[in-house]
Amino acid sequence: MHDSTARMITPATELGSAPCFRTEIDLDTGHGDVVAATLRISSLGVHEARIDGQPVGDDVLSPGWSSYEHRLRYLSHDVTGLLTAGSVLTVQVGNGWYRGRLGFMGGRAFYGDRLGVIADLEIRFADGHRQVVVTDESWTAGGSDVIADDLYDGQTIDARRRTTAPGWSLPVRVLDFDRRRLTPYIGPAVTRQDLVAPSKVWESPTGRILIDFGQNLVGWVRFTTTGPAGSEVRLRHAEVLEAGELGVRPLRDAQATDRFIRSGGVDFFEPTMTFHGFRYVEVTGLSLAEADQLEAVVVHSQLRRTGEFACSDELLNQLHRNVVWSTKGNFLDLPTDCPQRNERLGWTGDLAVFAPSAAYLFDVEAFLADWLADLAAEQQAADGLVPFVIPDILKFQPHPPEFPDPDSTAFWSDAAVWVPWTLWEAYGSRDLLERQYPSMAAHVRRVRTLLSPSGVWDGSFQFGDWLDPDAPPDAPAKAKADPGVVATAAYYRSLTTAAATAALLGFAEDAAEFGALAERTRAAFHAEYVAADGTIRSDCTTVYTLAIVFGLLSTAAADSAGQRLAALVAASGYRVSTGFAGTPYITEALTRTGHLEDAYRLLTERSCPSWLYPVTMGATTIWERWDSMLPDGSVNPGEMTSFNHYALGAVADWMHRTVGGIAPLSPGYARVSIAPRPGGALTWCRSSLETRHGRIEVSWTLTGGTLKVTATLPPGVTGLLSLTGHPPVELTEGTHHWPA
Fold first, then answer.
1. What residues contact 374, with CB distance under 8 A and at least 6 apart?
2. CA distances (Å), origin 324, targets 148, 203, 265, 317, 652
3. Would the pTM of this model clear 0.85, i.e. be above it?
4. Could you say which of 343, 365, 425, 513 is catalytic?
5. 131, 331, 332, 393: least CB-packed within 10 angstroms?
6. Nearest one of 269, 274, 21, 265 to 143, comparing CA atoms
7. pLDDT score of 659 more than 70
8. CA 223/CA 242 separation, integer angstroms
9. SS (H, E, C) 198-227
């Protein structure tokens, strides 16, 4: 749209929430039939476009949330089948991320206070004639039936305004807007994905009607109703119940409430300019029988499911399903921390550790490439600093008092390096690495300026092993693991990854620079943090885990660290003792150092804190805290408690690679490792993955100590079957059985 004459337009006078824009399309006559028509459209705010009342596409909440000051995305719709002579194009624009509330520090309209739309409709006729309709001063505007809309607080729809709202005669004006900010979507749009019916409807102890949809999900509720004009239906959403009532305290001040005002006739309501994270809904204004007819609409980015996993332990299967649902709920246009409270931000640390799991479960290459484009734009504007969240809304808000002035932060800022490399391993896209390489290099070079004279990264603020289960509930950064150990280990991993990327792309000087710096960092880590007897400073599970998995130790030292790690895990009663930094990697560290059974015991422990404790408490998504709900059914008293956070579900990567046995040996799975490691009480497992080369399948059974493995590789793919105690076996395409 850069070369289009379309202008960004806004109502000449403020019309409140969700104004509508309109133009009549007078087709050029004398050129035959319309053979093609493409609508390119974007907005300041979220939009819904229709031609003669019909949606132009399946998308909702477009154009989503990007770093608006750098990138505003547009969608292209084929509308050939919708156009007729005299068609009317209308666009409704709501507040969305652009003008609505954002962030946990309060405030709204950080990007601008005027909603707008920019559109370009290109029409081609049978004789080759081209007609273009663009947004300009000829359009008109009017009000709508939406009288309030906010992502955090919900949407209010007044059906009476569907016939009495102001007409379309109000003028528009042109906004000052740089069209060079416009960019096509890289990733998929947000769409409706599924419909979920109530599993239970009842009255609470205080007489309120409650609905349980049986699954913590993200989206909204829709329904048809009749009733007196002006009467209201109100829906309030939450993830949990507490004391038999809707548990809204974890939402903080997000209202998560939709209101529907009836017209007096038959009214259909669907609040498509908000979204909620919820399992339960409190209903006012409907009977029990009417409430049972409501349906929840699941909404997230259009992602193709690629990876499957199932095993003989149903609790592990539910854990895996919980990871899948948390991915769905938080991959709504961008990867967020949570979808329900007054936050919903693209925290870089969460994705840095979770990306490998996501890339197995879904095809996320384009989705995350879009987010990485925002990361690179924000980073460049911040002189190499990768912000805590992408898009960086925190720069517009009062600085959180518990954090000092931010700079690059281990794990969080390392997303600039780790996520592109994860996508390279999963999909083999060299183009993505080439595009993100400047961002990767800028990150490791900026951190170099933050190192102490001893060469370790210990002088700036760190989240560290965030949410260590032993940290005070109100001080989640006060972990057992020394933050310098965590940060330096993470930096070493980024340096080795950046060096490998530079070598792959042919930047030999950079590869040498990053490789040498990695070796200096590794030496500094040992000099500063590793004692003569192999003990690592702070002597806790996370520090040994990171040192082992990130490759900071020699083989002998790693074996010694593995022994200490296994001892600490056993001393904890096989309950989780790691936070954000250690949790994704601890089972891998145990496995690599010969403690597979300890890894299985850790994974299958049921007491709190553990991965399976939430499952035993009825969780259907991954929780932010191990004890987001306490054993007595009450909600954790802390101010930071979410029941839909995917980060701690990063253990799914180990489940896929080690339990399921599928891992890439070359980028994009052109060559595959088939290396299942049965353990615990498991007797069978099935896993599969749709790769760029086709479908890989692995299944195994363990009966009376006898292991049987079946693996299927697609055409052109080779593999290596590696089983404990047996020599490796080369595999070609087709189905293989072991023993043969």
1. 66, 67, 70, 71, 334, 346, 390, 391
2. 32, 31, 40, 11, 10
3. yes
4. 343
5. 131
6. 21
7. yes
8. 26
9. CCEEEECCCCCEEEEEEEEEEEEEEEEEEC
